[in-house]
Amino acid sequence: MNLLYLLRPKDEITYISSAATVRQGLEKLRVHGYTAIPAVNKAGEYAGTVSEGDFLWAIYEKGSPEALEKMPISEIIRSKRDKAVTVSADMDELLYLIMEQNFVPVTDDRGKFIGIVTRRDIIKYFYDKEQKERNSSDE
């Protein structure tokens, strides 16, 4: 199956520029109720995922609201722990990554961020597939 079937395109999700400030990122998390958000650089490439933990460490290390107003998101992305996949990834690769991530960022073949696939959507895909197989074997 093609993962594009499960893709939530970037124009339908919330993401943040890696050049945005830490304060702006915190505000996005608060408004949307998320625990993590994908960050995209000026070239439109996936820069990493920023989690609540990344924000907490920034607050702990910098402390002052003034510092958070000036610090770009790119400075607090701890690592590329949340791996992205390209549109050509297979379902096994997607399933392996989603075990450790709430969502999997998806890029095109040029590395441009095009959206995400959520854990919920992958579980639903496999649940529906199992139900279909079960129903066809009952007939």
Describe the structure.
With about 140 residues, the protein is an alpha/beta fold. The chain has one domain (about 5-139): Roll (CBS-domain). About 40% of the residues lie in helices and about 20% in strands. The mean pLDDT is about 90.
List keywords for this structure.
alpha/beta; CBS-domain; 40% helix; 4-stranded mixed sheet; 5 helices; 139 residues; 20% strand; elongated; 3-stranded mixed sheet; 7 strands
Specify the CATH homologous superfamily: CBS-domain
Low-confidence stretches: none
Name of the CATH class: Alpha Beta
CATH architecture: Roll
Number of helices: 5
Describe the structure concisely for a colleague.
The chain has 139 residues and is α/β, with parallel strands linked by helices. It is 40% helix and 20% strand. It has 5 helices and 7 strands.
Topology:
Elements: E1 8-9, E2 16-17, H1 22-32, E3 36-40, E4 46-51, H2 52-62, H3 65-70, E5 85-86, H4 91-98, E6 103-107, E7 113-118, H5 119-138
